[in-house]
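Review this chain:
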Amino acid sequence: MAALEVEEEASERMDKSMEAARSSIATVRTGRASTSLLDRVQVNYYGAPTPLRTIAGVTTPDASTLLVQPFDASALKDIERAILESDVGLTPNNDGKIIRLNIPTLTAERRKELTKTVAKLGEDGKVAVRNVRRDAIKKLQKLGKDGLISEDEQKDMEMDIQKMTDTCIKQIDELVLAKEKELTTV
């Protein structure tokens, strides 16, 4: 594997880690109904964990309500159970055909709790990016040890990877700050 391939692979993996962090931070609720709140909910559908989005339509009829309409009516109970067991913190109201989720306004205590959750999700994203950096640097060191690249090339590539890492971590920090600001704004 050439040094450029290592750098390209690291870049792709860092982008994927960034996108994963971005999507997980977006699932934290801010007092307004958003269909992304239910993105992390996994439903035990016929014995297999299935993303809620694949077995039900999620809509927002107004700013404080989410409607979950299963494509298969027999999955209604499973969806309701999955929402109750998830970390979303909402209680589903089942009317036999659809599930309504009323989003209450956030209390100061809940805002602090969600701010901590956002910080943890951001930290998880940064750890993933750092793991990509570690793996890439190990590969570069192996290439250097095997004599496939010079020491100077190895150091230059390591610096490039460190710069990519710093950029990704800065972007994750900005995402976390923006979400925390959104949460603390009443």
